Amino acid sequence: MIGYLIYEFRRWAVTWTDEQLRSWEPVALPLLLAVLLYLLLITLLAWMGYWIVPVVLTLTVMAGLLGLRPGLDAASRVTLILIASALGITLFVEFFIVEGTIGRMNTVFKFYMQVWLMLSVAGGVAAVTVWQAIKNKPALKQAWTLGLGLLVFAALLYPILATKAKWDIRMSKEAPKTLDGMAFMPYVSYGDINGSQISLANDYEAIRWMQENIEGSPVIAEGYSDNYYRTISNRVAMYTGLADIIGWSGHQRQQRAVLPGSLIDRRIQDVHRLYNTPNPAEAKQILDTYDVQYVYVGDLENVYYAPEGIQKFRQMVEMGWLEEVYRNEGVVIYSVQ
Hints:
Elements: H1 2-13, H2 18-23, H3 28-47, H4 52-67, H5 74-92, H6 105-134, H7 138-168, E1 189-191, E2 197-199, H8 201-213, E3 219-221, H9 235-240, H10 249-255, H11 261-276, H12 280-289, E4 292-297, H13 299-304, H14 307-318, E5 322-327, E6 332-336
Parallel strand pairs: 3-4
Antiparallel strand pairs: 1-2, 4-6, 5-6
Helix pairs in contact: 1-4, 3-4, 4-5, 5-6, 11-12
């Protein structure tokens, strides 16, 4: 891309006539001051630690000015404007973001999707144009080919190194290689809070039972964990497709941004109360509020919630409010009566 900008500048510069250069004399001083101010600005930004901004800003201004020059053919103008626009977007999201629950990540990601598309189109045109311009100039051709080769080599390193890195962080190397997104579960246990180990084998058996035996779309209750990158919270809703009291807080807040965040907080608190309270009547009230028809108690719930809160579900069975419909070594599923 930089090579293309240099090419376009040279192509423009050779068209300047003495008469055109003399016509710029009245604005020579303002132009000089503007250049000095610009150099001062990018130097100040670099001194403040913003190294990327001066580089991107310079390329954006250069591409924009070249793309707006008179007498330019349409193909070159579109290519230059795409480059300037794409670089301008990357600069914009360095300073402005949409407020959300995950910092600037969502803004950067959404805008960068457009940037990648724009630069991919412009980059193809730029590469062909530069190659056509230097193919008969051995020194330039050799230097450009070497630079391009290094870039391609660096890009090819990613699948080689990343494949091994991805393989090394698999939760289980013994799990089968399959499109079945649950196939890893019988082979996996992971560390959670307070040094606990949670096995997914029990969840696998219980969820398979639910998939085969529960009809319709009843609401379920399962435990809630904020640590979504280190646990498998919402695993029941995720693998059965059944409605839950609360999903992942981050996604719920993003998808329901127009609603007060307190609505999400209240549901999280209600799930915690449902599992922690030793009072069967309070738990029954929560189940009725959300029209819950199945309560799931697995290893995660036993780790995260108070023992007396888990034990009260047995009391609710004796009271006729719940019925045990499934049990394995680590999971009990209750049906709400």
